[in-house]
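Technical note accompanying the year-one report. For the benefit of new consortium partners, we illustrate the data format agreed upon in the data management plan: each record pairs a sequence with a structure-token string. No post-processing was applied to the example shown here.
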Amino acid sequence: MSYLDNIRTFVRVYELGSMSAAGRDLRVSPAVTSARISQLEDYLGVRLFQRTTRNLTATEQGQAFYTGAVSVLEAVDQAEAQVMHLTDTPRGTLFVAAPLGAGRRLVAPEVPAFLAQYPEINMRLRMSDRTVDLTTEGLDLAFFLGQPEDSNLRIRKIADCQRVLCAAPDYVARQGNPAGGADLVGGSHNCLNLRYPGASEFQWMLQSEDGPKRFAVSGRYECDDGDVLTDWALAGEGIALKPVFEVAEHLISGALVAVAEQTPPVPVQMACLYTHRRHQDPKTRLFMDFMTQRMGASVRAAEASVAICAPGEN
């Protein structure tokens, strides 16, 4: 397996552009990463990377080897998947990404039950509200809210999640309750925006009398962690656009109230992305089946627990 380990290491170094990043991803030390690349170069008799103190770039030989290396690893993965289908003993490590809110409330709580059913599977859960790249980050699947940008990936829908514009009662007492999206434009209200490096200009998609419409809202607060926006809303600092499942407890307690109900947010799709492979890895398929049912049920339960207007029901 050492030669395959060297190939896997080469692929991650190539994709991540860094020995240290590849080592962290593979959970080995930088010294081990460097040694594996050196062993592979010695075996092939070519230099795969040009190294300087600041940069690492693939040579022409490295670029050519990468294409074949990926094909080799995919073939091995497919062969292993076929064997595991026959033995019905899924094993290995699942690399999964999820947005912070959904990850904390819907994904992470269900992981122990899944691993209890499949004791030979390990879980590596990464949570972030930024957009992830399954290929370069070595992920088996990623949960997301919205519409994916990469059309080369497969999508499995989980639910259409109802959303709500909400604020603390003391904010509404100070600033008033906006009737709809038009009142959120122009600076009279402080909108709490989810924004991360590389995100496009922020707009809120709300349901108007003429159908879905984008409103270019603004505010003094931005963060790349959706739970921080909830905390700011609870502190009376502004209006947040949140999936109902993330704030249901606060809506029930009265710590947050729905606002701008004439133009409620358009529901957002929750789904998972996974790579297109001829033979789907059994552990990936099993985890998707398990989480789709449980996450969907949790979303529906949260939405049923609060009385929020659906689009057009004002």
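Partners are asked to follow this layout when depositing records. DSSP finds ten helices and 14 strands in the chain.
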